[in-house]
Amino acid sequence: MAQEILVKAENLTKKYGDLVAVDRINFEIYKGESFGFLGPNGAGKTTTMRMIQGISPITQGKLTIAEMDITKNSREIKYMIGVTPQEDNLDPDFTVIQNLLVYARYFDIPKEKAKEKADELLNLLQLTQKRDVVISFLSGGMKRRLILARALMNTPQILILDEPTTGLDPQARHLIWTKIKNLQKQGTTIILTSHYMEEAAQLCDRIIIMDHGKIIKKGKPVELIKMHVGEEVLEILHNKETLQFLKDTFKEATIEVVGDKIHVFANKPRGYFAKILKQSSFKGAVIRDSNLEDVFLNLAGRSLRD
Amino acid sequence: MKDKFWIFKIPNISYRVWKVFKRNKDVFMKTYKTNFIPSIIEPILYLFALGFGLGGFISVINGIPYINFIAPALVSVTMMYSSFFECTYGSFVRMYYQKIFDAIIATPITIEEVITAEILWGATKSLINSTIVLAVIVIFGLVPSSLFLLILPLSFLVGFLFSTIAMCFTAIVPSIDNYSYATFLFITPMFLLSGTFFPITSMPEILQTASQLFFPLSNAVILTRSLALGNIQFSILLNLAWILILTPIFFVLAVNLMKKRLIK
Q: What interface predicted TM-score (ipTM) does this complex get?
């Protein structure tokens, strides 16, 4: 299947002094797909986003967007990108509508067209009632929605979402997910970072898992799950006898003790655990679908990152 | 920024500067009714306290009534304060607390354009506030010469210079509290020792030279006073020339230092 490559990174590297934030990574993002960068804090996701946006100069390697070199054509590239940054940076001196109109001006969008677009986006993101409200009176969820609206003012070909739903309640999060999916259906290429694995599994066609500035895995979420942890996970309350039994029974499986629970990743097809569990009974045994979080914790380990 | 001469790099700017400038203007227009009052109260207080109060004891300086002597200097002080504070505290709040620069550089506008717009805005604030203070002293009948109209373009130029100097501080201060060093080490001595309240000639010669070299306000005061009193001497061209030399130097420094602070 021949797909048009929109973003291409070759040995992309970013150093801050001696610290290597992004270490010779390679990836290709196709036009119209939804592409996720996952990883713990400090993995290099946001730095990679900032390089794609053209606001952080690359140290080494090559980065092209729509066949334009980021080091030479960053202005042209910025015209085709919309960004929702991790931190709120709405203009607090303005109302909701003024935020959108002033932003449109930065993109040379004519006033009348900007007004039309702004009202359309306020409607889309359910902010019409807040049109003339000053930013400080908005809730966190409304601010995130307004930031998304702002990112769409220039009708971007590429939408960069840096942790789009961090800190939001479930309703607001689902609303944003729905909008993002719709945008992708309409042909927008989505690049997102997240440390919510559920979010990535919901939204992304393909993902990259980064750690310490390097790519440790890439692929489709479902395939990564199948490949690394199997379709199901067995969770059982922890005690010594059970642990020994599990170790004897599932010789090739990865067995992890997390808090008061034992997790067994057997990397076997569906139904495998159920068959064995029939023969013996355990306290608090649960078989559940494995998810990206399991993949992630298996690959990146459980130690805390700052 | 591997380039050794990064600090002298000529900023690459386009018409987009006006879009950022307009943003600041739009915010100002929303609040101008409350905004401009504090900035003109202070010079008027000085005018009353020093002009009428102190002026009762020192009636004449170099043949000029004391109040006529200090009135133009107060316009110069307004140029300095309004632009310097706009590009220190004002710009710092926009940069650090409001993250507005970050939002703007995600659009086709570059950081060089943002900083240039901030400096132009600082110069404009100088023009606006100087116009008001000038109007007040004209109404009080303290400005005998019609050359005073030239003080308006001068206020923009002087404001531009002070904005670039302020922006250099903004590029290096770790936190907003550190501006107090800039104020008491630079702004306050300049305010007092630039020929504002007494003639520069009453200081030792070495201080006179230092004042003219290191305190742009000193040059601004001479120019403003000459224009207000209609007392034009050839030497004021040197004062103007010094401002014109310093301005592009500090402009380039300011833009590159800010770029270094913000582009990582």
A: 0.88
